[in-house]
Amino acid sequence: MEESKNNTEHNRIEDIKRRLYDPNDSTSDHRHEGVLHPQNFKVADQWKSVERDMTMKKPKTSFFKKFFIVAFLLFLGAIGFAYYMYSNGGVTVSSDKIDITVIGNAFTKGGDELPLQIEITNRNNANLELADLMIEYPRGASDNATDVVRLDRDTIGTIAKGTTVTRSVKVKLFGDEKSVRNVKVALEYHPEGSNAISTKEKLYPVTISSAPVSIRIDAPDQATSDQPISFTITTTLNTTLPEAGSVLQVVYPNNFVFESAVPAPSVGRSVWSLASLTQTTPVTITVNGRLVGQDGEQQVFHVYAGTTSATDLSVVNVVYTSLLDTITITKPFLEARILVDNIDQASYTVTGGETVNADIEWSNNLPTRITDAQIIVNLSGNAFDRTAVNALEGFYDSANHRIIWDKNTISELASVEPGASGSVSFNFKPNEYVGTRTNVKDPQVSLDVSIRGNQPSLGSTFSNVDNFAKKVVKIASDFQIATSASFFSGPLPPKAESETKYAVTWTLSNSVNSINQAQARAVLPIYVNWVGPKTTSSENISYNATTREVIWNIGTVRPNTGFDVNREVSFIVAIKPSLSQVGSVPQLMKNLYLSGTDSFTRTLLKSSRNPITTLLTNDPNFKAGNERVSN
Known about the structure:
The structure is a single chain. This protein is mainly beta. It has four domains: 95-210, Immunoglobulins (Immunoglobulin-like), CATH 2.60.40.10; 213-330, Immunoglobulin-like, CATH 2.60.40; 334-476, Immunoglobulin-like, CATH 2.60.40; 479-613, Immunoglobulin-like, CATH 2.60.40.740. Helices cover 9% and strands 49% of the residues. It contains three helices and 40 strands. Strands 20, 22, 24, 25, 26, 28 and 29 form a seven-stranded mixed beta sheet that branches. Strands 2, 4, 5, 6, 8 and 9 form a six-stranded mixed beta sheet that branches. Strands 11-18-17-13-15 form a five-stranded mixed beta sheet, with no helix packed on it. A hairpin with a 5-residue loop joins strand 38 (592-598) and strand 39 (604-609). The model is unreliable at 49-57 (pLDDT under 50).
């Protein structure tokens, strides 16, 4: 029963589904059964007119759309113009269509002429007008970009389209072996129908197969401060000298003291001529000097071969080749330091006959013991007096002009431990030249100190360790002035409130060295007046009324002045004493001061003389009592 009921329901559903999808079904009644939520909508009467206006009005075009349209039109115009120009034979010039080809050897010897052929091809469809070819290359071996050789501008003119122009040039390159030098080729032109200037450039690298001149420096790697060193420079010619005036220049470090060279320099102390240099005969130069510096400092020597400029013969202008060498300053193993009057410097200035005290401070800088140490001072020079030496603890060998200290005189020198130090002393007197005529030039005493010892090594052998030091004691010239006065006119003895005139004379003396920029000056008291020079003289003497100074500008004073030649000046002064000076001996002139520079020692020499009074000790006619002012 239940099953029959289910079948009936199923058939009814299927029947409804069939009628639902059957387009010809007319039995079904399609009607609304009801409305859940009824709503009323009011429609405006003008709806249709508004809709009609909206459909008829066009929207505005945006800015970006307009820009795109304009750009597109311009693009089409450009394509059209290019097509027109191409189809009608329009002209365009591009530097990419200009070919510069350099034909020549990529290797050359420094200083040799290198021929180059330059081809310029114009592949443009237009001419190149007012074309100029410019060539430049390094002047010497340096890499200074501004130091170049510029050949004369080659005016080509017009290079027609599709044609090739050829030019030949010769260049001369310098540099070290295997260095590369660039030849710069530039074409300057105007595109046809244009005033614009364009340039096409090309670099042509050339390798230097060998420098025209080779330099070799033979020098020690290390040197002790203030010790003699020497180094040798050998110059070899590989090809031919490019210039007739070729030279070799050595640039020394600041701390190098030049002493001598073999052969002697041709200019100054650092330039040698290479005129004798050939491929079979090198030029060898040996330089001697000293390096002064601190332990570990590196001193660099630069050597250049080349030509000098016409205006300055001391500097290499065009460099063929160059080389540098470095020497390191090291601390000496066994050190000796000379102090003169407790001062350590290269040279000293003393006066003749003065006692000079010297000390030698020594020390062992090795990490090992030194045995049998010995210190020797050699004294020499044209001012050395071998009879005036005091060796103190050492032994003075007068025959050989030296003082020796060893274990026999100082026991601690028998064995010097690492870091041990000590000192020895001596003194001497150089020759005195006061009041004597001499032919000695540049008087000096040289102190050469050597210290040596044995350093024990393996077994019973010893290696010698030594060190040298040198000092120079220069003798200053004895530069003096003498004064005198004599009665000239008026009452004698001088009378109060009356005028008496005196003649004053200044006389120079000088011993061994020339004196430069010499001058003497003195002040007159307020009661003394300047009258003027006594006689006509070539000497430059004047009076400054403001400062009341009498000034003698002496200038240069030769050696042996007062013996070979006399230098003096005389002038007149007038004294008018006051009643307050009755019975006194008044001054005619206050202290006299003399100054000048010693040309050898480079020191300023100064001296002074006491005031001149009316006590005329140098006047042979003077009588005692005439010096005091009377009433």
